[in-house]
């Protein structure tokens, strides 16, 4: 589960792609837009999608729950084979 949680965190905090002058962050839905501009005179702009934070949290929680359920199933199956 720690590897899956780390992967989900990594997917949400790295720059995903460059779209029309913006770097976007977040997986599966874009949470943060970051515009740096092309010259020193350009201003820094950013935008946060709060609805997307909730969507990403729900999806990540479901993925972690599925991984936990699968790991528990493997542990119980192995214990049953050994006769514990």
DSSP strand content: 15-25%
C-alpha Rg, in Å? 19 Å
Low-pLDDT runs? none
Could you tell me the number of beta strands?
4
Shape: elongated
Order of helices and strands: HEEEEH
The biggest beta sheet is recorded as: 4 strands, antiparallel
Structural class: alpha+beta
How many helices? The count is 2
| Main sheet strand line-up | 1-2-3-4
Question: What is the averaged pLDDT score?
Answer: 86
Instruction: State the separation between the terminal residues, measured CA to CA.
Output: 24 Å
Q: How are the SSEs placed, and which strands pair?
A:
Layout: H1 2-13, E1 15-19, E2 22-25, E3 32-35, E4 45-48, H2 50-82
Antiparallel strand pairs: 1-2, 2-3, 3-4
Give a structural overview.
The chain has one domain. The protein has helices spanning 2-13, 50-82, and strands spanning 15-19, 22-25, 32-35, 45-48. Strands 1-2-3-4 form a 4-stranded antiparallel beta sheet. With 84 residues, the protein is α+β, with helices and mostly antiparallel strands.
């Amino acid at each position: 589960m720690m590897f899956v949680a780390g992967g989900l965190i990594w997917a949400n905090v790295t720059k995903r792609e460059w779209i029309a002058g913006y770097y976007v962050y977040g997986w599966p839905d874009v949470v943060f837009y970051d515009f740096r501009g092309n010259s020193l005179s350009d201003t820094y702009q950013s935008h946060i999608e709060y609805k997307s934070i909730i969507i990403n949290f729900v999806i990540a929680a479901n993925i972690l729950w599925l991984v936990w359920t699968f790991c528990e199933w493997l542990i119980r199956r192995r214990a049953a084979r050994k006769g514990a």
